């Protein structure tokens, strides 16, 4: 079996589809994901949330794990429709957040102001 020549891929539009699939694959691995099942595990390490974006359905849960060996974290959400406060999170600890209403929410750290996780709840 021989592979199609690149010019045929470009003409047929398959090249654009392959490029789009590759780009989506990179985004899913580096920024956020929607494939995992609830609870979605979010790591706090290096003074950042990993991933930084997550899309989920109303009623699903995220589990935030403090993977920083020597840093405290303090996750919170403040909005007109939803609020959450984890309190101080010791290294190795975890806390769950159930998103019961739709919307776009910023999960922030009260100790490290540059930490931000965006959660889109459908």
From TrEMBL:
It comes from the Bacteria. It is found in: Periplasm. Coiled coil: none annotated. Its main location: periplasm. GO terms for molecular function: copper ion binding; electron transfer activity. The keyword Transmembrane does not apply. This is Plastocyanin. The lineage of its organism: Bacteria, Pseudomonadati, Pseudomonadota, Alphaproteobacteria, Hyphomicrobiales.
